[in-house]
């Protein structure tokens, strides 16, 4: 339980905070619309503010308490974290990159591609936002995740229900690369015999 009456809502020095705007563009210079951005005041994670860029790639956080950090938290792009120490004379400009990809397919043990399987990518480190991402395989059993870093490791899980039973697969310690990953799902439910 957090008593909001004890949390100062203005600047540390009693000022009403500082205006913060962020402009996001893609590598080619085009604006990056609908990008999820967060501002996290230093030592005050509970006061995190999230906004999305408009069609021109701009986001207005309003007045924020400095110092803090602006970060992208959009699974389409590689994460960016930018610290802000003091007052800004102009807004922050970020150039977004698609980052690296993990791609692959989900099959049965006989190699048959599986449509509609939920594939989840998890990061055992705290460098990926959001930390867990999910997608569903296409008609040919393929999936892809973007916005990843090349140097970190990830874990893939595939799960689905077939004939009332859970089928799944896991591939761990992979890195974003050009090599597709194959997840072979198997019936994971225990087989119970008589008297169990």
Descriptive notes:
With 196 residues, the protein is mostly beta strands. The protein is built from no helices and 15 strands. It has strands at residues 18-26, 36-41, 49-52, 58-64, 68-72, 81-84, 92-96, 100-107, 118-122, 132-136, 142-148, 153-162, 165-175, 181-184, 186-187. A hairpin with a 7-residue loop joins strand 2 (36-41) and strand 3 (49-52).
Kindly report the average pLDDT value. 86
Described by the principal axes of the CA atoms, the overall outline is elongated
- Got a strand count? 15
Q: What order do the strands of the largest sheet run in, or round the barrel if closed? A: 10-9-12-13-15
What is the radius of gyration computed over CA atoms, rounded to a whole number of angstroms? Answer: 22 Å
Topology:
Elements: E1 18-26, E2 36-41, E3 49-52, E4 58-64, E5 68-72, E6 81-84, E7 92-96, E8 100-107, E9 118-122, E10 132-136, E11 142-148, E12 153-162, E13 165-175, E14 181-184, E15 186-187
List keywords for this structure.
single chain; 196 residues; elongated; mainly beta; 4-stranded antiparallel beta sheet; 15 strands; 47% strand; 5-stranded antiparallel beta sheet; disordered N terminus
Q: What's this model, at a glance?
A:
With 196 residues, this protein is mostly beta strands. The chain is built from no helices and 15 strands.
